[in-house]
Predict the 3D structure of the following.
Amino acid sequence: MLQTPATNIGQLPPEMLDFTILKSTGSLAPRLGRLSLPGRKTVLTPAFIGNTSRGAIPHISQDNFRKCGGLEGVYIPLEDFIEKHPQKTPPIFKIEARDPLRKFIALPNDTFTVLGARRSPPISTPVAHTNTEISLLTSVGFRSMTSEYYAAAACKLQPDIVVGLADIPFGQEVVGTKRKDKMSDRTEMWLRDIIAKKNGMGEEERKFNIFAPILPIERDLQSWYLEHLLDDMVDKISGVAIYDAYLLDDLPDELHHLPRLSFHVPASPQELLRQVSLGMDLFTIPFINFASDAGIALDFTFPPPAKIGDSPRQALGIDMWDPELAVSVTPISGGCTCNACTKHHRAYIQHLLSAKEMLGWVLIQIHNHAVLDSFFTSIRASIEAGTFDADVATFSAFYEPQLPDKTGQGPRVRGYQFKSEEHGKSGKKNPKAYKKFDEEKIVQLRAAHGQNKAVRDLVDDEALVGLVGMTDMEGVKLDGVALGEDEVKA
Ligand SMILES: [Zn+2]
């Protein structure tokens, strides 16, 4: 079904999101779309949006944001900004300006913002959700947040898109049927909360678009929620947030015209292609950050280059810590036009990583975003040309199924980058940057600085021997030449 043509944008209320499906061959098939928000860059889908941490793409400062290819939108989790103690007003809520969230994170005006409650991927929390609250991991610890607080935050921060709160027990392997019933009930209630809050906003206030979460459970178990969503909320929402792409088959037909944002975390480009093949439109891709932190420069194209003979499958990335690259003065990828590849070579990037120089990760991050940007451009071209399925098959045959393993050391990790079960483990999360040398090393260093008596004497003796020209001590009878202690006494 075609939506309002994008040419009508001028007549839409200022905050209205418009999504047009440009090409689709069926309900569970790849599709092309165009997402427009007034004042923001138009996005052709399938596409990915930046996954921020504390308001920034990791390693990318605001002045480098433009160099990071293809970021027409960013995902911002609210849990990054709220404090552990509810009585403290988080600084983000103190900004008195139009579009405060954008001002706070210094985001360009034409980049659209998506606000959610949890990071992508979220870290499981020790406290269960209640009927009115979900449990979060703020940057300073765990706390709960009410649905009302979240709705109020959305009104205050004025993002372009807000993802409704979903009651999903992240990290729980098995979820019982009763718990699934609760998930459906609570998600419905919380979605009503945010719709009500938006409806209560003043005329002059900038409104947001709501994406309704679709729970990662079978359709009949969330039927209560879906029925109400279709009966009386479908005209209040502008998109859906999907937590399990493989349940897209269950998505009611009445929601097919809406843009789909995936929170189903893909582990590899192959999984991204699988989700695209099911009709997903927008992605947050956590593996970009994981790869960059591990010093892995992604290296794949879609469709892949022609396979030469019986050559083994190619790796999806280059481990920039590989000792062989220490003398490699070629760009990361030959065909890449990103800022890192056009100006620097592999050996330099490895040197930066070894020296723990931040720029190393900055360059890899810029490159990795450029790789994903051209990956999605090619995906759209392939869907347009009708060769998507064949291209996916050659891609799977050409590349290894998983990203390379991490070998080198990444940048310092923060608490919220850890799975919660790892918080309980003893031992240091980051190796000590500074530590005491052992005894042997101390002796060596002191010697080098002339501070150790025993070693200094040895050095002085050697120097003396050099001065008198007796380089070969073997076989030289010193007794007759130098005055020994005994002779002096005598
Ligand atoms: Zn590059």
Confidence is low (pLDDT under 50) at residues 1-11, 459-490. Residues 9-424 form a domain with the TIM Barrel fold (CATH 3.20.20.105). The chain has two domains: 9-424, 439-482.
